[in-house]
């Protein structure tokens, strides 16, 4: 359960319902059906993913699995892509957490205005401190935060679904036929994006008991929970304004859908409570991402890709403490750069989130291909359903979302065509840099090249 709560916290469920689900509704009424469909797609991917955790009993997740299926150069490229993806993700969480604190202060006292980065720095220091210790400490903190925010959204869902909202219950929201619209690609794109985090279970392989059992269970529970949670919450938001008007209202101002529903059905106090929990939700996401980045950095240091000095594990806490402090220092530097160069905080948050969103789709696609290739080359006794059919079906859905994102980057980030192109190229650039570095290692440091993907412990 500790592992489950740790990875679920990554997704910031309350933040997703508050900000992203309403955006999704603006593209079509069948958002609940879309979440169920995406949960099935991600669940099919997870079948192959968890088969890899058993066949390749090493930490590293995407890094290790891409290496095993597609070779060392692409494996190292995948690890760099993962670092960039999670790095942009935590940068987005870092900025939005500061914004959330300012919104919280405004909810309790009009006219209070403080620099967002001041609060982001404070929360980063707390997350960095917690990441120094064993993941169990972070898991306890994340568990409390997650339970509270999920309970609040559950109350919201029960109230709206139980009452039927403005117009009563709606079958259209659950009808798969209503997914067949010109915007289906965008709808699935945003639906898949909010499942980010389920894959992080494999990263903690060295820190859980019986990983061959714990990791698959936590992965399936995470996917199943997120699918049901988002589907019911989307349905509740639709009912809050009525199915006949939901798409129109969400399109006019997506960010106002849930706040208006809270005011209408629960009053001002509920909005203030949510303002508090949004801060803790984004902090939980930041802490989870800090832990994930620390473990990726540790894996690369163990392999000799990064300096071995940061590969050590704390003798008492069992945590990759030096990698954690390295990640903290880099994030501090990123925050300083963002402050010095200025810019609108909302634009920074959206841009970082867009790159992370796209990078994760690319990572899932590469990993899905690697899973299929690995099991075609290695007879592990795992079923064809888990190692070929399920991953192949999932790849169709994920690949469709990646293609949609590639040609609709303006939906992820608001900016000039040049900015959109530069942001789109970042994930590919990190992948190519990793591949080129692997080729250089093969020529100059053969032993290090051999270790890519934790191939030698």
Describe the structure.
The protein is mostly helical. It has 17 helices and no strands. Helix 3 crosses helix 15. The longest helix is centred in the first third of the chain and has 37 residues, at 72-108. It starts with a helix and ends in a 6-residue tail after the last helix. The model has no long low-confidence stretch (mean pLDDT 86).
Report a brief summary of the structure.
This protein is mostly helical. Helices cover about 75% and strands about 0% of the residues.
Poorly predicted spans: none
Report the biggest beta sheet as strand number plus sense, adding barrel if it closes: none
CATH class membership: Mainly Alpha
Helical region count?
Answer: 17
How far from one another are the termini?
A: 28 Å
Name the features.
457 residues; mainly alpha; Amino acid/polyamine transporter I; 75% helix; globular
Question: Mind sketching the topology for me?
Answer:
Elements: H1 2-10, H2 13-25, H3 31-55, H4 62-70, H5 72-108, H6 116-131, H7 135-163, H8 184-193, H9 211-241, H10 246-252, H11 257-265, H12 268-302, H13 321-341, H14 345-377, H15 384-407, H16 417-444, H17 446-451
Helix pairs in contact: 1-7, 1-9, 1-12, 2-8, 2-9, 2-10, 3-8, 3-9, 3-14, 3-15, 4-5, 4-14, 5-6, 5-12, 5-14, 5-16, 6-12, 6-13, 7-9, 7-12, 8-15, 12-13, 14-15, 14-16
